[in-house]
Amino acid sequence: MTLKEYYRKYNKQINEAISSALQEDKVRNDITANLLLKGNAGDKKLTARLLCKQESVLAGLEIFKKVYRQISHDISFNSYYKDGDKIREGKTVLEVRASVRNLLIGERTALNFLQRMTGIATLTNSFVKKLKYGAKILHTRKTTPNFRIFEAAAVKTGGGDFHRLNLNSSVMIKDNHIEAAGTIDKVLNILRRKPLKNLSKEQKQKFEIEVKTFNEIASVINFGKGLVKVVMLDNFKPRQMADAVKVLKKNGFRIEVSGGINLQNFAKYQTKEVDYYSIGMLTHSYKSRDFSLEF
Questions:
Q1: What is the pLDDT of residues 191-240, one digit of tens each?
Q2: Are residues 114 and 133 in the same domain?
Q3: How many CB atoms lie within 10 A of CB 142?
Q4: How far is the C-alpha of 1 from the C-alpha of 43, rounded, in Å?
Q5: Number of domains into which the chain is organized
Q6: Mean pLDDT score across all residues of the chain
Q7: Could you tell me the CATH number of the domain that includes residue 49?
Q8: How far is it, in rounded angstroms, from Cα 117 to Cα 43?
Q9: Are residues 141 and 227 in the same domain?
């Protein structure tokens, strides 16, 4: 799915989330603006500059605009960059022309989306630039509650790709599912007896199971063929990777690597024929980038 398709598909949820953020900030009851901008003073039109204060990979610019458009339709933008662009410190990203009141009440909410999404995109791009063999960088579900829809978009903007957006997106058998059932053999036996006709084609193609040992890999090879499409190697040591990948690829599985990956050790985890690296820190350990709206 492209970013454009993603935004189109989730447009309703995105608009609802923005509306909730504006309500949270009580933008229609800004007591400071109400005190300072008496009468028609708040209707005066100004042009504000969105300034990038750190080198970044831009993400969330379209969300920034959506925030202001929910406040008023009488707002115009002159953009100099677009989402996905690399921007140097000190550059003007866009100009916003609106009433003084609308510029002030929307400023923090719009910047909150932009700064966080740009932080994620910038971090994601740092991993993408370190890729050696053409695998994809994926997000996980380790996201901020009620902000996942934006965080996943930011990963995509930074050069990564979409993974599971929610529990209904695809089958993912994790270690706790295996513990609950007893063993990985029992899990696979249960699934083989379950009718899968209610699963979509996409859900079947992403049917995934997590393994932690070579014994579990052997079980998936023996009992999971035709059912399991992707095997996640969770917290395997870098020295174990080549052997695990070799035997799984030989048996036709796609491979995802996850667990403990960061920018410092990423090179050690990379090996040929891995398809995906899912990295939790993209959405739980990023640092927001610095922007300001200058009048």
A1: 888 767 778 877 777 889 999 999 999 999 998 888 899 999 998 888 88
A2: no
A3: 15
A4: 42
A5: 2
A6: 93
A7: 3.90.1170.20
A8: 31
A9: yes
Structure tokens at 138: 């994926």
Beta-strand runs (E) in 29-167: 45-52, 56-57, 76-79, 86-87, 92-99, 136-138
Kindly state whether residues 135 and 278 are assigned to the same domain: yes
Domain co-membership, 179 together with 45: no
- 288: which DSSP letter? P
CB 48 within 8 A of CB 95: yes
| Residue 48, domain extent | 3-122+287-294
pTM value surpassing 0.90:
yes
Question: How far is 283 from 146, CA to CA, in rounded Å?
Answer: 13
Contact 128, 159 (CB under 8 A): yes
Q: What is the pLDDT of residues 34-72, one digit of tens each?
A: 888 877 878 889 999 999 999 999 999 999 999 999 999
Q: What is the pLDDT of residues 141-185, one digit of tens each?
A: 999 999 999 999 999 999 999 999 999 888 899 989 998 888 999
Report the 3 state secondary structure along 98-113: EEHHHHHHHHHHHHHH
Closest CA to 207 of 250, 180, 173: 173
For 285, which DSSP code?
S
Under a CB-based contact definition with an 8 Å cutoff, are residues 156 and 162 in contact?
A: yes
* In the block, residue with structure tokens 């990979």: 57
Contacts of 148 (CB under 8 A, 6+ apart): 141, 165, 166, 283
CA nearest to 116, candidates 293, 281, 287 = 287
